Amino acid sequence: MLRAQLRRITLPKPSCIFGACPPKRRPTLWALTATATIFLGCATYDVYQDVKAAKRKGFFRSGSVPSYEDLENAKTHNNPLRSPFRSSSSSSSHPLSRWFPIGQLSEILSGFNSAQKVMLGFSALNIGLVGANYVAPAAFLQHFGHVPCLNRNYTLLTSMFGHSGTWHVAMNTFVLVQFATDVAESRVFKGNGSHFAAFYLSAGIFSSLGSQFATMLPTRTYKYNRFVPNLGASGVISASSWVTLDPNGKIGFLFLPGSFPADSFLMALVIIETLGLFFGTPLFNFGHGAHLSGYAIGAAYVYYDGRKRLWLPARRVAFGTMKTLKMV
């Protein structure tokens, strides 16, 4: 079975094997296109959900939404013409549903906001895909490992869900779940699952792209790193850590006494990652390029207010498109 899987792997071109620089233009264009598609897709879904929620409140009885501003107002106000005795369409489900797995899962997740649910969903996907690594390792690395010198642009996206083993996915999932509440309730996402999904996927793509560009730097192992598959969600986790940064907050560690200022700790991590990128890390092969790219993405998204400059304009574009197509 393993031999058959190895035959299906596309070998790199000879020029790449002998040290040619990894591609730059095509992966960058692919990353920009994929990110724009992801943001617009998530924004469209978010607008659609807002329209459904507004109609459940009793707004827009004519069936169409006059403008985007009206939709925003409907999100924050209750319809005064709606009877307080009118039952909501999102009323409680049938009592017997709690005895089925889907009903039990719904009850468990009922206390989480949409951003936390999305984060838990991504964590579950990461854990589930570890099994594929053990069942078909060659095929798994081909589709979920991003090799910088190969022309597989789609692995910029899929590699964030791939992990090398149980220990790798356990550590990333543990850290991701620890950040879940802070990320969901941060001023950037405000509990919006669609916004967080767009950021998560986009940050993963660009952290993988940053890892590819890092193999072009004159580091000790840059030629070797061009052929090493990059896997894991650590780049996204690095970006999320900057999103949740509280200048007055502190970070504590398991098995270590005391705590450290959050901003000082993250700056120390940036220095350590930079040293590791150029001089290497003994006994370990960390994705320093992906980590540094994640820190930069998260810091830029917070500093330049990605919610105001990217997410809200994407919602407006999505609403305008849906309005033109008479979907709202």
Automatic annotation (TrEMBL):
Transmembrane segments: 118-136, 196-215, 227-245, 265-284
Region of interest (Disordered), residue spans: 71-95
GO biological process: signal peptide processing
Keywords from the named record: Hydrolase, Membrane, Transmembrane, Transmembrane helix
Superkingdom of origin organism: Eukaryota
Record membrane topology: Multi-pass membrane protein
GO MF terms, alphabetically ordered: serine-type endopeptidase activity
InterPro entries xref list: Peptidase_S54_rhomboid_dom (IPR022764), Rhomboid-like_sf (IPR035952), Rhomboid_protease_S54 (IPR050925)
GO cellular component, one term: membrane
Places the protein is found: Membrane
Chain segments annotated as coiled-coil in the UniProt record: none
Bias kind Low complexity: ranges: 80-95
All copies of domain Peptidase S54 rhomboid, residue ranges: 153-306
Principal subcellular localisation of the protein: membrane
Record bears the keyword RNA-binding: no
Family: Belongs to the peptidase S54 family.
Protein name as it appears in the record: Peptidase S54 rhomboid domain-containing protein
Organism: Daldinia eschscholtzii
Taxonomic lineage from the root: Eukaryota, Fungi, Dikarya, Ascomycota, Pezizomycotina
